[in-house]
């Protein structure tokens, strides 16, 4: 690879000046994150996407659903670019629009649709956000899932939570005091989600059967092992982890929460972090006075986040300098209008 990539990236960034705004999610590689004008979790990046109306080009160093959200939230003259189109998200892919329509039909057939507020995690396609917006629901991220759920339960008796079953379950059980029995899991690969009408009627929350393949790899054994090896360790995990892991952890929160917790931690304290490895490594490098380790022995990068590497970023920036717009993410008008309702509702949460 070209040893001048770093120089080329800085040169292209300089040439584009204020016309360019680079957003970087915390799971991005260090080689990419150094060029971000703003870094953040999904919530902060959604807010920031709209923060530079004068920027013509928003280069999104993250995954596809985040770039779609940025396109929905930015003005018509702003163009959103994803440096590698293959940077998707396996969780977002677990809920397809037709499957969600079929699920809603099942709720209608069970006679409960009128009492269900649909809600989707940010980690979903623009189509799913539009589905939710059309039915007066809300988007949430891992930093505001509790507030969004409280908002939803002021409006309906039940919630359909898409597509991350773990974030939904963890939040209602930990923050809203639900029992595990109040939750049912809708499996889109089975007729009627694999649920009886009675189960749908009894449930307080219907969780979509989706999960994050990265956070899903942490297990109760990972937690027990690290507690054995490092007796004074604090276990800090992301709410996309399973309920078992979250229940065994000391602290739980979004990537932005995890960063703040480490910044505020006592020097010398020990932390085992259950989230993506690029972020954990960066925190360990930035805080040499604290003992920061990865929660599991096996490495755990998000392979799609990692697709955005320096060669892809340089290519995208140099294309822009040459007057071409590569890998533009465009959400159609109807989807944008409806998805925007659900996103705006989230951004307006108190
Ligand atoms: P947050 O950025 O909301 O913490 O989500 C983590 C994640 O998995 C993003 O894909
Ligand atoms: Fe998707 Fe998980 Fe990767 Fe986030 S970490 S982009 S939820 S696969």
Question: Could you provide a short overview of the structure?
Answer:
The protein has about 350 residues and is an alpha/beta fold.
Molecular structure report:
The protein is built from 15 helices and 14 strands. It has 350 residues and is an alpha/beta fold. Strand 3, helix 4 and strand 4 form a beta-alpha-beta unit. The protein folds into three domains: 5-89 and 305-334, Rossmann fold, CATH 3.40.50.10800; 92-210, Rossmann fold, CATH 3.40.50; 215-294, Rossmann fold, CATH 3.40.50.10800. The strands form three sheets. The protein has a five-stranded mixed β-sheet with strand order 2-1-3-4-14, sandwiched between helices. Strands 6-5-7-9-8 form a five-stranded parallel β-sheet, sandwiched between helices. The mean pLDDT is 97. Iron/sulfur cluster (SF4) binds at residues 27, 63, 89-91, 123, 212-214, 276, 302, 304-305.
Mean pLDDT: 97
Approximately how much helix is present in the residues?
Answer: 40-55%
Strand content: 15-25%
Total helices: the number is: 15
| Main sheet record | 5 strands, mixed
Low-confidence stretches: none
The domain count comes to 3
CATH topology of the largest domain: Rossmann fold
The rounded Rg comes to: 21 Å
Each distinct ligand: 1,3-dihydroxyacetonephosphate, iron/sulfur cluster
Which CATH architecture of the largest domain? 3-Layer(aba) Sandwich
Give the terminus-to-terminus CA distance. Answer: 48 Å
Decide which structural class fits the backbone: alpha/beta
The best one-word shape is: globular
| Total strands | 14
String of helices and strands: HEHEHEHEHEHEHEHEHEHEHEHEHEHEH
CATH class of the largest domain: Alpha Beta
- Describe the strand arrangement of the main beta sheet, using strand numbers: 2-1-3-4-14
